[in-house]
């Protein structure tokens, strides 16, 4: 997306991220601020080479304001290990910054209201690789770079290069780790995908 460049500002990354965090804390652009406990801006190293993008904070993430601390977090940690990664190698965030009640899927309206925060975060961090978890995050990141998204079932585990950025980035769409919590047979698929990208990261 041509517009991404406008988010890359010269300045202190830490200060920019702090200022973004304050805007998220005060954000009322969609209805989710009314029911959230803590917004989850993002977690981890802002100098990371890899950004992981999930869908939205779950129940536990909402209580703690931290990314992937619940059941799907346990699965994610296991999968990251297979890819040769640890949490402190990464910056982790989500498409939505506030927990949707009963974990409803992000609506178009909520996503459109919130997505500029994710664009800004990627502009500030300028990672080399973006790992997207699940169809919502994958679709939004593909869209951000003007890339065509089909289905996560088709694209999962593949490595894509962005063409519309000062420095090219790798985008790697993955199934969301939460699917392994309710569809056990998906765990080996996730394990295979994460093991396979080890050399790419
Ligand atoms: N699921 C997500 O997509 N993100 C989180 O932070 C936690 C669970
Ligand atoms: Fe704002 Fe995003 Fe929270 Fe909606 S989900 S209130 S747009 S920060």
SSE layout and pairing:
Blueprint: H1 13-25, E1 43-44, E2 50-54, H2 59-64, H3 71-82, E3 90-94, H4 108-125, E4 129-133, H5 134-144, H6 152-155, E5 160-161, E6 170-174, H7 179-182, H8 187-196
Parallel strand pairs: 2-3, 2-4, 4-6
Antiparallel strand pairs: 1-3, 5-6
Residues 24, 27-30, 32-33, 39, 96-98, 110, 113-114 line the site of iron/sulfur cluster (SF4).
Structural features, described:
The protein has helices at residues 13-25, 59-64, 71-82, 108-125, 134-144, 152-155, 179-182, 187-196, and strands at 43-44, 50-54, 90-94, 129-133, 160-161, 170-174. The chain has eight helices and six strands, in the order αββααβαβααββαα. The protein starts with 12 loop residues before the first helix and ends in a 5-residue tail after the last helix. 39% of the residues lie in helices and 12% in strands.
In short:
The protein is an alpha/beta fold and 201 residues long. It is 39% helix and 12% strand.
């Amino acid at each position: 997306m041509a517009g991404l460049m406008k988010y890359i500002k010269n300045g202190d990354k830490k200060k920019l991220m702090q200022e973004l965090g304050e805007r998220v804390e005060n954000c009322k652009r969609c209805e989710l601020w009314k029911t959230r406990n803590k917004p989850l801006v993002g977690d981890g190293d802002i100098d990371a080479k890899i950004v992981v993008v999930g869908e939205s904070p779950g129940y536990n993430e909402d209580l703690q304001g931290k990314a992937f601390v619940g059941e799907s977090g346990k699965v994610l940690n296991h999968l990251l290990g297979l890819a040769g990664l640890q949490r402190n190698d990464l910056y982790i965030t989500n498409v939505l910054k506030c927990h949707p009640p009963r974990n409803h899927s992000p609506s178009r309206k909520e996503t459109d209201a919130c997505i500029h925060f994710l664009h800004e975060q990627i502009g500030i961090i300028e990672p080399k690789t973006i790992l997207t978890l699940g169809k919502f995050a994958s679709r939004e990141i593909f869209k951000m770079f003007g890339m065509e998204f089909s289905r996560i079932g088709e694209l999962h585990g593949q490595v894509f290069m962005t063409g519309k950025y000062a420095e090219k980035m790798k985008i790697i769409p993955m199934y969301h780790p939460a699917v392994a919590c309710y569809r056990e047979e998906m765990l080996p698929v996730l394990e295979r995908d994460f093991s396979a990208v080890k050399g790419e990261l």
